[in-house]
């Protein structure tokens, strides 16, 4: 069975790549826009102007998926066009293939949208609302703890080729009682991306106070300071725990508006960032996504599920853009899975050419 993956908020959109795809797949994109309601073209224009916006990234990833569906199953698209069915904003719950879904952080919201629970515009609104909640929660934390608002939260990607489980070892270091003073409690493991790589967040002063100890503990450690335009300590429960309830309520209200709140099962099961478990039911998937918005992304647990924890074996992974970060993570950590990059005109054409040859 296939696994379809979707990237997180840290992957900015290459507008030149996206425009090249749209230009060369203009017929398919006209179909996509017509099937997603009157606001879809406005969303596309917004993406061109705001490629780093969380709403833009989530929508762009969903568009890659819809293009994949049309190119993989062209007869279904033609049938829809021939029937001249007026398309409302909600996608059809019927789908063309059985597969598992996996998204990294924000990408898990795209997984929910692929299950036809809400429209493309809803996806855009939820992604941006989630980001606004995190910005507000961060500001409130700084005020509550009398921290100068000029003090910034940073994200560091840590990698060590000799580590056996770097995220766990870093967490153990952070839990050491004599390591940090009581004021230095903002550091958290945000993403456990592999046994040799993780991302930590925290106030810049706290992170800098830890730099020497990190280099002493982990030989050949590489520290990469990541961009963080919204000053958010992503997946840091100390700061972001308050976002959970309003985020859940916001999504639930959208489901009620769409009449999808009474549905039970997902079209496609989702492998959850929270714990690597598979969500088959909508309320489980929603609960896990909301909780993981302020907890560590346990991607290493997701690899365990992909490699040996699914009822039906996963043998192929289609990794949608923007960007190829998730493609590289799956390729390196799930060696038995055929991993396919679906991020550019070249990779899209290569995939569908191979698929046609295999069918022929």
From TrEMBL:
Alphabetical list of SUPFAM superfamilies matching this protein: FabD/lysophospholipase-like
Top-tier EC class: transferase
GO biological process, one term: fatty acid biosynthetic process
Any GO MF annotation of the entry: [acyl-carrier-protein] S-malonyltransferase activity
Keyword Thylakoid: no
Keywords: Acyltransferase, Transferase
EC number: 2.3.1.39
Catalysed conversion reaction: holo-[ACP] + malonyl-CoA = malonyl-[ACP] + CoA
Any one GO cellular component localisation term in the record: mitochondrion
Classification via PANTHER family: MALONYL-COA-ACYL CARRIER PROTEIN TRANSACYLASE, MITOCHONDRIAL
Official protein name in the record: [acyl-carrier-protein] S-malonyltransferase
Species of provenance: Saccharomyces paradoxus (Yeast)
